[in-house]
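Quarterly update from the structural biology core.
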Amino acid sequence: MKQFIVLGLGRFGSAVATTLVELGHEVLGVDNDEERVDDLKDKITQAVQADITEERVLKELGVKNFDAAIVSIGTDLEASILVTMMLKEMGLKYIIAKAQNNLHAKVLKKIGVDKVVFPERDMGARIARRLITPNIKDYVELEPDYNIMEIEALPEFIDNSLSELDLRNKYGINVLAIKRDNSFNISPQAKDVIKKDDFLIVIGETKIITKLAGKSDK
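Predicted structure, tokenized:
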């Protein structure tokens, strides 16, 4: 079990906080909005109303004792940068921060944030991909040109083993898992056969996977 502190309990922050608790971790959520704190007090380990832009408050919360901090302050870029700087100075192990734009992200990276996220942009990209290629159910961006994607098995895949499909040599992609109904076959073997309605979790070049997944839309 790990301990996380989420600073800012808007839509993104509250979603991160509640999901971490559902996954079995302890979460302290902090926001200066009383209504947001009240909404989450029974859903996460602890929710506190406080002004997180004050260094004294962060020290009293014991931020340096947490495994990671998620800075999810909304549109106040100055507050986001200030809080992140104070967390770094206090020696926090790992910091994830929400960015509003590319300039904001650059500043956060300069400060030393370990991971910068763009929730709105990333969600927009997911929706766009699903509209264009419905067979891509989900994806995780590793780099701009490489992704882990969940794709529906193409008709030509069905009743063939992974060795027969030879996706690595034909397309340069690797199958990490096979999803069948509600179960996962992690690290599938070459002899494993793809069935109708299976989903493949694959890793490879984004444009190649997208093109491959788009075949069954035609």
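The chain has two domains: 3-117, 122-217.
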